[in-house]
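note to self — DONT lose this again. spent like an hour looking for the file last time. sequence + predicted structure for the chain T wanted, 367 res
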Amino acid sequence: MGGCFSDMKGAKEAVGGVNQKATNNNNDAVDFFYTSQGFQPLFTQVELSFSAYDLLDMDITSKSDPMLVVYAKKEDGKFEELGRTEVITNCLNPEWIEKINIAFHFEIVQPLVFHVYDIDTTYHSVSTKTLKLKDQDFIGEATCNLSEIVTKQNKSLTLKLQSKNGNINGKKNLGTVTIRAEETVSSRSVVEIIFRCSHLDNKDIFSKSDPFLRISRMVESGGTIPICKTEVIDNNLNPKWKPVCLNFQQFGSKLTLDRFRILTSKFVAIRKMQKSIADLEKLCHERKGANFVVPSKRKGQEKVLKGQLFVDQYNEKEQFSFIDYISSGFELNFMVAIDFTASNGDPQKSDSLHYIDVSGRLNSYQK
């Protein structure tokens, strides 16, 4: 189980896991559908790297000092700057080191615009983030959709630079820019764990406890952030939960301490402990359990309890993403059917919701 989207059944299902939350304002209909169904939009983080070839030399006594700026083009036509590369001096074939991270949403169109500038020598000591672009020489621009990059088998796309009016600037060759996309490794590496407990305390009077396990990540401030919760197992003091799937982005590193808390379905705490992911891996290999303890203000005087946490399975693996499928040739077919009910009127008449206007005006269904 593990990678569930939401706790739709009142703590009866696992939540957390490999799901991530993203906001999406580019497609209200898609966003509304996901939200109404209790899901979050499907996306993955990709890292873009850039290089250029045969750039137009804007300098006289030396070569251009290029910098690339990336923009996302919004629905209203406005540009939102996503990031800038560093400046590479005296180079017409730059390979920039600076990368830009962006969330790829497969269900929406994400237009990107790339501007290449020649940075004046007097600005080389200025941070690229504070550079005024209007004071720099514009070399050229290129546009594409993010999907055009990630769907390539080698996840690389080369574009010809154009002038701002959309032309290739007459006979002048402005050069090309190559964009490469790489899915963020941390979002692909996952670990699947099967937890079980034995001899838990009973918190109910007329029956046994209904336990579930909640995992939280310890943060530098000393607090905790919940990252996953198993399903509830009714009336059981020796529960074994379904597999939980966590990605490495959620718990930071194997050495990061996580808090494992056992609660009942009524959110009454049974016991808790702190372990790192490395500790869990060790418990699995050694086939041993870790005892829950009652903390004490005095170090070394914690009360060791009979209840134990076991790791029956610990399996690290690479999770194949949607990008892997589409870059390997996977295709989606989308079909739409409209029910031409009589209540909507004769589609040949202009007052019908299904009427196709010869002037091109869209009807309610087309909108």
